[in-house]
């Protein structure tokens, strides 16, 4: 009994730590928007951008997926091994190192050391997941294994950065493609497939294996083919456009099968959710459909070009992935399993603040992007507005963290 309480408290600490990382990442983002209004001499915007992106990706998304994978996929007798707790906190050390190093020095010795440490620790995690959950042959497990393989594949891009800089320099196509290779397979391979695996794990009834196989094959193919889209930004070759077009069509087909696969269970699934969980799952699904739609538009040559050239579109799309799809699904899973209390006023208010901040900033980013596309210039009060609505994201996370602290202090009943 005592050991069980220690394990549950440990998992609460893990979740709270992940939210702390998310809070710091959002603070970095808020500061980036602040310096547009009030420039600060000692703040290097580029360094801050690296700190924001690394903390969000590796401190929030990676680590909360770590927590939920251990909880849902690793058998209890194995997840209780000390190695998982030690690995989590070692990974958190690398995240804190990046939080400190990137704002001060950007990409330099210490930030590279801590980033490399994170990658090496992620390999240990992949090995543990593969070894400790190998007996499970469920659809969710197959999707998780695919996501883990994509995570490992993505890191090949990082290992190419050193040779790219030393041989051709940071402005070379090789260097830029290596970065895009890493980001593509992190977001579209590791992160998206891992959260979909966790989502499938929430369905109680057996999933149609034929429809799952079609979805699985199509989503794997689309993930591989659509890496041609960012590569096209740096390599002039029309063949890459056709490969990307095939990839986004495969993606559309994959999620048609994804819907058909889950359709018989949707009513029963919704009956298990409280109102707050339904809201965040709806946000995640709407964001997912919007992502698929946007990627379909990139088949058009003109839109494919501006999607890279107009920074507002780039930031808006990245936030669509991280805040809308990934965080939306993660919040839903946490609420569904009472890791966040859906009945708590703090959680309800925090989620509403977060969603309002997310939707408002996305609308501003994409609207400003379209104005730039049509040569209309900047909308009045753009930087002031996006700063104010970004405060809601931070406020939402503060309220969610306050709820988690309250839950952590509550006694655990067996």
What are the SSEs and their pairings?
Layout: H1 2-37, H2 45-73, H3 76-79, H4 82-105, H5 109-132, H6 139-159, H7 161-167, H8 173-200, H9 209-225, H10 228-232, H11 238-262, H12 266-271, H13 275-297, H14 301-309, H15 311-336, H16 345-373, H17 382-409
Helix pairs in contact: 1-2, 1-4, 1-17, 2-4, 2-8, 2-15, 4-5, 5-6, 6-8, 8-15, 9-11, 13-15, 15-16, 16-17
Plain-language structure description:
The protein is 82% helix and 0% strand. It has 414 residues and is an all-alpha fold. The protein is globular, with a radius of gyration of 21 Å.
Distinctive features:
mainly alpha; globular; disordered N terminus; 414 residues; 82% helix
Give the gist of this structure.
The protein is mainly α and 414 residues long. The protein has helices spanning 2-37, 45-73, 76-79, 82-105, 109-132, 139-159, 161-167, 173-200, 209-225, 228-232, 238-262, 266-271, 275-297, 301-309, 311-336, 345-373, 382-409. The longest helix has 36 residues, at 2-37.
Please indicate the percent range of residues in DSSP E strands (runs of 2 or more). under 5%
Terminus-to-terminus distance: 8 Å
Unreliable runs, pLDDT <50, ≥5 residues? Answer: 1-7
Given helix and strand content, the structural type is: mainly alpha
Give me the number of helical elements: 17
Biggest sheet character: none
- Taken from the alpha-carbon principal axes, the silhouette is globular
- Rg over CA atoms, rounded to whole Å, is 21 Å
Average pLDDT number: 90
